[in-house]
Amino acid sequence: MKKFVCKGVMLGLSALIMMQLNAQSRYKTGANTKQGTKNAAKKAPAASSYINTAKDPAANDAGNNVVPVNTTGGSKYRTGNNTAPAVSSSNSATAAPSSGDNVKFEYDTSGEDGMDGKPEVSLRNNYAAERTQVKDRKPLEYEELREDDALFSHFIWREIDAREKMNKTFTYAGKDENGDQRFFAILMNAVRSDSVIAFSPENDRFTTPLSSSQIMSITSGKLDTIDVSDPSTGAVIKTVTRTPQFNLDSVYTFRIKEQVIFDKEASRLFTRIIGIAPIAKQVISGKSQPRVLFWVYYPDMRRTLAKYDVYNPKNLAGRMTWEELFESRYFTSYIIKSTIDNPGDKYLSTAIKDPLFRLLEGENIKSKIFNFEQDLWSY
């Protein structure tokens, strides 16, 4: 019995040795021989579509067609692979360097601003007390104003600068169940998730609605190319990455269009916000210019703003909603335009070049409105 067992073990070892020798001979290519060249061409692995694939840089942001740019199948960590990626004539903007450069192209279109992401919901209660009233909040209905009862009316355009101390809550970068708490993120989330319609920045009369894809393309960024060195070989890899045109913290100015009405039936002055627009800074010819991104009709935003709490640096238990902040006027702003003594419908920056005198003219407009209300009463 032991004799048969020993003979079986010897046969198994012999078979294993023969398989190893056969495997080694399969991967040996003869040096400068036709048979070696033939075997190398026959055994060359096929190109993988997951190694060197790229999104077409010439396509727009909404395009998702992935096309291969290198069909050689070589690994980026293997030496001796100096073949340049194939680039079509239509993509001359991202054409590869000369064949003497050991470079590759890789594409990364992931956004850095996270505007497309969904808010992370806590799987446990993140607060010591149950917060059940947040989802049930609804703004109070406006008091009806009749056009016949309007004794005095004017339009005012203001700008809120979040860099001012009183407006720091507009750029609070905390996270909550509703997502990012910065006011620009709240506007974007309302357009994307709450079916709030954004309108074209061409005018402030809400004439041209924008689609969600047009709004999201504002923050999707543009393509850029950077050089990255391979840690193994030192070869230069051209990485085409998507860099955002601006981040959330760079949008710190918001324009407000409002109407001031004195209602003779209620004998009081009403200030109603009509629209809100975020403003980004755009560099043109080395100069920073403000650019209105889009307009949002404020009455459409009130339901969304009622669900978001404003950051209170003194006491988190005393937080108000964003809807209460705007209705109670808990922000500071400066006037940039009004319909008072403005037959040319011009901004103050057009008529007054000195920024200090523009601020003084804005205070003068506030005084005119205040004095009109006060002069209606006799003491």
What can you tell me about this protein's structure?
This protein is of the alpha+beta class and 379 residues long. It has a domain at 151-168 and 175-221 and 246-305 and 330-375. Helix content is 24%, strand content 24%. It is built from 8 helices and 15 strands. The chain has helices at residues 2-26, 34-43, 183-193, 212-218, 298-305, 322-327, 348-351, 355-375; strands spanning 53-55, 66-68, 103-108, 150-161, 175-176, 179-180, 198-199, 209-210, 222-229, 236-243, 253-263, 268-284, 287-292, 295-297, 334-338. The strands form 4 sheets. Strands 4, 7, 8, 11, 12, 13, 14 and 15 form an 8-stranded antiparallel sheet that branches. The longest helix has 25 residues, at 2-26. It is elongated. The model is unreliable at 27-102 and 104-114 (pLDDT under 50).
Task: Outline the biggest β-sheet.
Answer: 8 strands, antiparallel
Helix content: 10-25%
Tally of individual helices: 8
Poorly predicted runs are 27-102, 104-114
Given the helix and strand composition, which structural class is it?
alpha+beta
Mean pLDDT over the residues: 75
The SSE order reads HHEEEEEEHEEHEEEEEEHHEHH
Give the strand tally.
15
Q: What share of the residues does DSSP label as strand, in percent? A: 15-25%
Rg, rounded, reads 33 Å
CA-based shape: elongated
Q: Please give the alpha-carbon distance between the first and last residues.
A: 126 Å
